[in-house]
UniProtKB/TrEMBL annotation:
UniProt entry keywords in alphabetical sequence: Coiled coil, Membrane, Transmembrane, Transmembrane helix
Coiled coil segments of this chain: 5-32
Highest taxon of the lineage: Bacteria
TM stretches of this protein: 95-119, 126-143, 149-172, 181-199, 205-221, 228-249, 261-281, 293-313, 319-339, 351-367, 373-390, 402-423, 435-454, 466-490, 496-515, 522-539, 545-568
Official protein name in the record: DUF2339 domain-containing protein
Length: 578
């Protein structure tokens, strides 16, 4: 207890000493003259730390920027005056045309170097003005050297424009000068597009546009200059699309030479591989997220690059097997990257969705490009494989792709047309379809059984149940169409009413599957089947004008309406809704 009192007494004594020292300091300050206090204040301000936020106040930085702008603008005018002096000497004949062009380009390059030096010193404003001057000198000079002076050929102008723009973009990327990058890119795009129009067909100028687009993709990945690649992608797409139209339209534009086919094919390939490949690598690495640009530009590149290559091959009467093989290889590589790399490292994110969708698209394009009826069978086999893998590992993506593969097989094999003809009661339809249609129909039923038998009873969410729903619809329609075909072979007159009977029976079976075996997806298709059957009754059965058809159709449809709805109601009473 005594020790605590002693400690408290010592603390109080220390506080009293500190207060006395402060009192003496205050008294000394009050005794100072006004002049001495002013001197003390100036010293305090001189040694006070500078607040960075105070230097960047919103009401101060525009004033400093405006103060420096006239000097930079005046310097830019002097630079442009030097360029006009070279032009005047060239037009007067003092300098040869070729020498004047070379000196003008060297003069523009010197200001790119000046922009780099200014950026290195931290003078970003000066660097931006120097970049604008370099672009204003180089781009018009290249255009005039190719058109008015005739010094540069189309290839020479494209190469020169590419070199000057690459130098400017290197400086902009090295010191992160986004405004300078915009100046060089926009100037090069305008120059290249104008050259392509003025000196058609313009394969070289279009190559510059494609190169700008891919360079902007690299810059966007390095510095996140997102909008820059949108602009350049539009230029590259339009340029390649223009050449493709000129090369594939019979006769072409009047008075304009058709573009060289191999060069157009190369540009199509560069556009396709460049954009699709960059998005593929971006998704595979997973470091940068897939964005809207990747989805849209990949689709556009496939439409222009792949679709244009197919049209060009057909216009030249050449095959597309090489394109089909390429698409299949990249498609399966996309599947491997999605499930083997992205899914294991990062999960089912946007990159996984992008790569799996790209794989599906390319495989469909590749198989469609291969000629012959075997492609439909291959699609159906792929659907069975995807369904088996998706059911084994419980992957809704693979089950969805299985349904899409089957839909593509239906279209290419003619099963869709056969089924529609059978169920609509078409007069004079082929009761016995060809072997390919039979194989595809059989694989459809097998695929549905694989997914149905391996379904997860605890699956939650309607999205996970959509693939099985689609497969049930396809298999049910196939079975109904088969019944119509068999009945037509036995009783040819049954074609008018057998479609309604088959659809009604299919509706009842779906209701039984939902009520007795708990297959909820089967219950989802009951009412759509009732609507489809009712539409057939109105459009086909009642329109036939035959009493026998009326009786059979109405009896079958009425029975389906009563039994299916009763079965579903019984199932709802038995089990509470989730």
């Amino acid at each position: 207890m005594d020790k605590r009192l002693e400690m408290m007494e010592r603390a109080v004594e220390a506080l009293e000493a500190a207060v006395s020292r402060q009192d003496r300091r205050i008294a000394a300050l009050e005794g100072m003259t006004a002049e001495a206090r002013a001197v003390a204040g100036e010293v305090t301000e001189a040694v006070a730390p500078v607040d960075p936020a105070a230097e960047a106040l919103p009401d101060q930085w525009p004033i400093s920027a405006v103060r420096g702008t006239p000097a930079l603008a005046g310097r830019s005018l002097l630079i442009l005056a030097g360029a006009f002096l070279l032009r005047a000497l060239t037009e007067a004949g003092t300098l040869a045309t070729g020498m004047g062009v070379v000196l003008g380009l060297a003069y523009a390059a010197s200001w790119i170097i000046a922009a780099a030096m200014a950026a290195r010193k931290g003078a970003r404003g000066s660097a931006g003005f120097f970049a604008v001057c370099a672009a204003l000198i180089a781009d018009p000079l290249i255009f005039e050297a190719s058109t008015e002076f005739g010094v540069l050929s189309s290839t020479g102008s494209a190469v020169t424009l590419s070199i000057m723009t690459a130098a400017g973009l290197f400086v902009a990327s090295r010191w992160r000068l986004q405004e300078s990058a915009w100046v060089f890119v926009v100037g090069a795009m305008v120059t290249a597009a104008t050259l392509a129009v003025v000196r058609p067909p313009g394969e070289e100028a279009t190559a510059v546009l494609v190169a700008l687009g891919l360079a902007a993709v690299w810059l966007a990945g390095r510095h996140d200059w997102e909008f820059l690649r949108w602009l350049t992608a539009v230029g590259a797409d339009v340029g390649v699309l223009r050449l493709t139209a000129m090369a594939t339209v019979p006769g072409g534009p009047h008075g304009i030479d058709a573009p060289h086919g191999p060069l157009v094919a190369v540009l199509q390939g560069v556009l396709l591989i460049g954009y699709v490949g960059s998005s593929f690598v971006r998704a595979l690495r997973g470091r940068n997220p897939i964005r809207v640009f990747d989805y849209l530009q990949t689709a556009v590149a496939l439409a222009i690059g792949w679709g244009g290559a197919v049209q060009l091959a057909r216009a030249n009467d050449s095959g597309i097997r090489g394109l089909a093989v390429f698409a299949l290889l990249v498609g399966f590589a996309s599947y491997a990257g999605a499930f083997g790399v992205v899914d294991r490292r990062y999960g089912r994110n946007k990159s996984f969705l992008f790569l799996s969708s790209l794989g599906l698209t390319l495989v469909l394009l590749g198989l469609r490009g291969s000629t012959g009826p075997a492609s439909a069978v291959v699609l159906a086999v792929l659907a069975l494989i995807a369904a088996a893998a998706g059911s084994h590992w419980d992957r809704v993506t693979l089950r969805t792709h299985a349904a899409l593969f089957l839909a593509a097989a239906w279209i290419s094999s003619g099963v869709a047309a056969e089924v529609a003809g059978d169920l609509s009661g078409r007069a004079g339809f082929d009761a016995v379809p060809d072997a390919v249609a039979i194989i595809v129909a059989l694989l459809t039923v097998i695929t549905t059984l694989v997914v149905l038998l391996a379904r997860r009873l605890k699956t939650s969410g309607w999205v996970q149940r959509l693939p099985l729903t689609a497969l049930l619809v396809m298999s049910g329609i196939v079975v109904a169409a088969t019944l119509v075909s068999v009945a037509a072979m036995v009783v040819p007159s049954s074609t008018l009413w057998m479609g309604t009977v088959a659809l009604s029976a299919l509706t009842i079976v779906a209701a039984v599957l939902a009520s007795r075996w708990g297959i909820r997806e089967a219950g989802w298709i009951v009412y759509p089947l009732l609507a489809l059957t009712g539409l057939r009754v109105v459009l086909t059965d009642l329109a036939s004008g035959r009493t026998v058809v009326f009786v059979i159709a109405l009896a079958a449809y009425g029975s389906a309406m009563i039994l299916s709805t009763r079965l579903l109601r019984t199932h709802r009473r038995r089990q509470p809704q989730e």
